[in-house]
Write a structure and sequence with these properties.
Elements lengths: L5 H11 L1 H13 L2 H4 L5 E2 H8 L3 H13 L3 E4 L2 E4 L1 H6 L9 H14 L2 H7 L14 H25 L7 E5 L5 H9 L4 E6 L1 H13 L6 E5 L12 E7 L7 H14 E11 L10 H13 L8 H10 L3 E7 L5 E6 L1
Parallel strand pairs: 4-5, 4-7, 5-6, 7-8
Antiparallel strand pairs: 1-3, 2-3, 8-10, 9-10
This protein binds S-adenosylmethionine.
Length: 333
């Protein structure tokens, strides 16, 4: 018998129980524990009282949160770790609670993975906003806003654009990238193009940012509608193409080319796979998330994006890996 490799053994058990960690975080977010602990230390008893929960059970989840490095324990008192202070307190600019809530919402879809792998078809199909319960849609778009609020900083730092003036934010959802781009580029105006149910929500995000004069929301379906001719010097296509198949993606990119002015720039923002389609890990797992949740979506490789851009007539194609787990692919008309 081979000697036991305890590291491998533990890795297998850790993978098997990884959802325990997610469930602890989901529950802490639903109970809003981090917001309650904002700038204070509480005992398990005090916290249990404020969330109307059992004291012994509360102590156990607080201890688990300490083990996950999300809380710090001193004597009987619990307080937020720095990471929770940044990302888990409601109302803070980089709050990720709605994104975590979204991952919680889709956890049930993942229990269908076995069936989905056998049939090759999504069992739960709610990928278009028309199919989604309005409450879930608001959760989803707010989740996209949480994530984009962090990534927009990363993207703005990575890009060096020459004073763009007219931007199309295709399938822009909450419009968070448009909001951050117009803040960075003083002469920029943006159009957030998305399906009708979503643009109703987009208006709210634009209004909260006080940017109604510079950002408009336009209703449209990128599979059916054109985006105009020679209208924009910048088009952002963020997290759209993973919803569709290669044929539809080529069609969308050709319409983007028509909508761009000469020398205009297209920026694709996605979880981009390497040539083996096995890395980065998040992109490989995200491809399963698309398999479970959409009719034809997937994570694609850098080479696939490049070939669709080339056949759509784009030049100067470049890939930029961001500090977070996604990449930009930029090209020119
Ligand atoms: C994953 S979200 C990305 C939102 C935003 N671009 C971002 O990166 O945060 C995908 C967006 O694509 C939009 N979308 C999906 N299919 C679309 C279509 N056929 N036409 C227009 N928008 C579409 C959805 O409504 C949603 O807002």
């Amino acid at each position: 018998m081979n000697p036991t490799n305890y590291q491998q053994f533990e890795y297998v058990l850790q993978l098997s129980s990884a959802y325990w960690k997610s469930q602890v975080l989901f529950t802490a977010i639903e109970l809003d524990i981090f917001t309650i602990l904002d700038n204070k230390s509480l005992t398990a008893e005090e916290l249990a009282h404020s969330i109307d929960a059992n004291v012994q059970a509360t102590e156990k989840i607080l201890n688990a949160l300490v083990s996950l490095d999300l809380l710090v324990k001193q004597g009987k008192y619990y307080q937020n770790a720095q990471i929770s202070h940044h990302y888990l307190i409601k109302g803070k600019p980089l709050y990720q609670g709605d994104a975590i809530h979204h991952f919680h919402n889709i956890a049930e879809n993942w229990t269908m993975l076995l069936q989905t792998v056998k049939t090759g078809e999504a069992v739960v199909l709610k990928d278009l906003p028309e199919d989604v319960d309005p409450h879930d849609l608001k959760d989803f778009i707010t989740a996209m806003h949480n994530i984009a609020s962090v990534k927009a900083q990363d993207i703005c730092t990575a890009l060096h654009l020459e004073n763009p003036r007219n931007m199309l934010d295709l399938a822009g959802g909450p419009g968070t990238y448009s909001i951050e781009f117009v803040k960075k580029y003083p002469e920029l105006h943006a159009v957030v193009f998305d399906l009708e149910h979503v643009t109703k929500l987009t208006h709210g995000f634009i209004q909260t940012a006080g940017l109604q004069e510079r950002i408009k929301a336009q209703i449209g379906n990128c599979l059916e509608d054109d985006f105009g001719n020679n209208c924009y010097d910048l088009i952002l296509v963020s997290n759209l193409l993973h919803i569709y198949n290669p044929e539809n993606n080529s069609k969308i990119l050709k319409k983007c080319r028509n909508a761009l002015q000469d020398e205009g720039t297209i920026i694709i923002h996605e979880f981009v796979l390497d040539e083996t389609k096995t890395q980065p890990q998040f992109a490989a797992l995200f491809s399963l998330n698309m398999l479970i949740g959409t009719q034809e979506g997937a994570s694609y490789s850098g080479e696939e994006y490049r070939s669709w851009l080339e056949t759509s007539g784009f030049k100067n194609i470049t890939k930029i890996d961001l500090q977070s787990d996604s990449s930009l692919i930029t090209a020119r008309k």
